[in-house]
Design goal:
Largest sheet: 2 strands, antiparallel
Order of helices and strands: HEHHHHHHEHH
Distance between the termini: 10 Å
Radius of gyration: 18 Å
Helix content: 25-40%
Structural class: mainly alpha
Oligomer: single chain
Mean pLDDT: 86
Number of helices: 9
Bound molecules: heme C
Number of strands: 2
Strand order of the largest sheet: 1-2
Shape: elongated
Length: 172
Amino acid sequence: MASLDRRAVVVAAVAACVIAALVPSFAQTNSSTAPEQPLPYSHKLHVALGLRCQQCHPNPDPGESMTFPATSFCMTCHMAVAKEKPAIQKLSAVAVAKKAVPWVRINAVPAGIYWSHRSHLLAGAKCTVCHGEVGQMDVVAKTVDVTTMKGCIACHKQFRASTGCEFCHEGK
Ligand code: HEC
Ligand code: HEC
Ligand code: HEC
Ligand code: HEC
Ligand code: HEC
């Protein structure tokens, strides 16, 4: 029953969907916080090389997460590129140890909340709507509030998606 209701909303929202054109104004954060990362990785530099978001952040089944790139992927270039730089030496040490770089999370929804990237991407929402102009950032900062209930609901209201408690809270 609940899932049928949800389906109906999904279809209606997709039909009316203009998310792609949405300027991310629904919930701007006023303080942009950029935590210090273990390596000085720059989106601006790497995106300018022509790398696409989903090359590093695919959306594997079942679709909840975008995931982080494997260190081995970084090494496809950095075996040769800038290998004398201290940051790249740190990166290759992590790769040799077959570990993941301990990136500091910027966006995180607490446990018990139903969240999926997949459904939002299928609805036409672009990365920038929820994450800002990441491709222009040297250090990723949170510029849009997409992880609090207030942020989720502001957008759901704007696009007439459900704001029923059981829609987002598990235990439905
Ligand atoms: C070459 C690989 C690479 C590409 C291309 C890339 N990213 Fe990333 N992304 C990373 C890495 C590594 C991190 C973790 C370090 C950081 O936060 O800067 C990250 C972090 C992020 C985060 C923060 C995740 C969190 O903790 O909440 C977002 C959002 C993001 N990327 C979005 C994008 C978008 C949007 C694009 C395309 C414009 C993109 N990325 C392109 C590698 C990449
Ligand atoms: C397509 C090739 C490519 C891939 C893939 C790639 N990089 Fe880079 N990266 C570069 C280039 C080119 C530079 C600029 C090198 C320079 O300035 O000499 C660079 C620079 C860097 C630097 C700055 C080095 C310094 O101190 O100047 C860091 C750190 C870095 N990359 C980390 C990463 C990480 C982490 C990943 C994987 C998430 C990654 N790179 C994936 C090509 C790549
Ligand atoms: C409707 C809003 C929305 C859209 C659109 C969106 N994201 Fe996210 N993103 C989030 C939320 C919320 C989180 C925190 C998720 C969590 O804690 O599980 C997040 C987390 C992430 C993370 C951290 C890893 C993860 O999956 O938790 C990355 C990387 C990321 N997003 C990249 C992207 C990229 C790339 C795109 C575009 C292809 C994108 N996002 C589109 C809201 C969004
Ligand atoms: C950019 C606007 C936007 C933001 C931000 C957003 N949503 Fe949504 N969400 C939508 C729209 C539109 C739909 C209906 C279309 C669809 O489901 O395909 C939807 C559908 C959903 C669904 C039903 C589809 C599914 O995945 O089962 C859930 C659950 C959901 N959102 C939870 C959240 C949560 C939790 C957050 C905050 C962490 C959030 N949303 C943030 C626009 C947004
Ligand atoms: C669109 C998604 C969404 C809907 C709809 C929603 N919530 Fe939430 N809720 C969240 C998210 C995400 C969090 C965790 C982040 C936060 O605390 O802001 C949360 C957190 C909470 C919390 C914990 C706050 C705290 O301080 O611990 C309560 C209580 C809550 N919601 C009650 C409700 C009630 C009652 C409804 C229905 C009127 C509702 N929620 C509808 C997404 C949603």
